[in-house]
Known about the structure:
The complex is a heterodimer of chains A (137) and B (132). Chain A has 137 residues and is an alpha+beta fold.
Amino acid sequence: MSLFNIFDIAGSGMSAQSLRLNTTASNLANVDSVSSSTGETYRARQPVFATVLSNARDGMQEGGVAVNGIVESLAPLRMEHNPSHPMANEDGNIFHSNVDPVTEMANMMSATRSYQNNVEIATTSKQLLLQTLRLGQ
Amino acid sequence: MSINFDSALGVHSDALRVHSKRAELLASNLTNADTPNYKARDIDFKDAMKTASSNQSTGIKTTHTNHISTGGGQFTSPDLKYRTIMQDSLDGNTVDEQVEQTQFMENSIKYQASLTFLGSKFKDLLTAVRGD
Lengths: 137, 132
């Protein structure tokens, strides 16, 4: 019964979106993180989504989504000259993280909506399956 | 005269199968709404119904244990078609969430309609069996 596969598909979507929400939370929490060298500074992280084909055997090839990895943003870090800062290096510079709060908020909204979409799909499929079980009664 | 389930239930059992397959496909589209380069797909209901109902009569019979069953009467997958998009996106994704959601909704209503038809067919059969 292919309706059961929908639970796998929607479930994979929910876990992927919650991971995306997790990275967004981590990014927003580190929006004001500073460090004394470019190597240690927090960089915005984003998950990479890819389709997994669960049922390639029968040619239908419908599939859920998987997180292929997490990439760090390559946007330049903001350097600030602030010799009085406790984290300042020998040149008196500190490095701010490259998290863009506006992008992260938009990301958060998108992830929330997609999560809700997946929940809706699972709920609808559950109702359809329950009605199918009651068939003929 | 014998009661044949296939002829008694008519087109509705096939319709149910096609609808459930389509629900899976649309769910896959919606789940991959944020996946880069994912292309939204759908099936042509008319084609799928044709395939589903023709399979029922042309399934090859297995007369020997070594014969491989072709799955006659089973739902074989119809051709997948790619959705024509209204708006391009930068990441190559062609899922339009509004379109997919309305299609999913419509599909589930049609699934329920087929279920209702099937249910009343079973009631009819039951009436025939009881004879009262």
